[in-house]
Amino acid sequence: MGKSTHAISGVFVFLLLGIFAVFSTVMVLMSAKAYKGMVDESALHNSVRVASSYIRTMLRGNDESGVLKVEDVDGIRTITMENDWDDIYVTRLYVYEGKLREWFAMAEIPFVPQNGESVCDLDSMNAELTDGILKVVVSKDGTEMEIDYAPRASAEARGEE
Predict the structure, then answer these.
(1) What is the pTM of this model?
(2) What DSSP line would sit under 62-86, residue for residue?
(3) d(CA 18, CA 80)
(4) Would the pLDDT of 160 be above 60?
(5) 2-37 pLDDT per residue, tens
(6) Are 50 and 116 in contact (CB under 8 A)?
(7) Residue 96 — φ and ψ, nearest 5°?
(8) Shortest CA distance to 134 belongs to which of 90, 89, 77?
(9) Which residues pair with 103 in a beta bridge?
């Protein structure tokens, strides 16, 4: 009777260890899936936030009267800033091949969209300049962010400061 009790308790211990191992594996797999989901979601929101911050920074850095335009160049909607620093330089912000890009060159150099510096992943950017207010909507995988920007240079030109 002593041997069979010992054998049953040994099987019971191995059964408990097996159940523990299965549940541990399931927990690790579920945690890894949840973590991957959070990282993917964070990366998605980061792209939209990075694009928004980058566009705002570029606009603030180029806030001079007459500098800002929204153009369609070769079928691509661009936020265009022209600066006169001894020569005319053009900065264009646009989305091309799934990336927000910046093109900076002298005005006489032809625009080549694939040569722009990649900033971050972005699906689209729509920009409209109406009554001195720039409205930009950026999106990545269905997540959108709207930027409304009123250049100070426009307010100063109207005497509003």
Answers:
(1) 0.69
(2) T--TT-EEEEEETTEEEEEEEEEES
(3) 65
(4) no
(5) 455 666 777 888 888 889 899 889 898 888 888 887
(6) no
(7) -145, 130
(8) 77
(9) 92
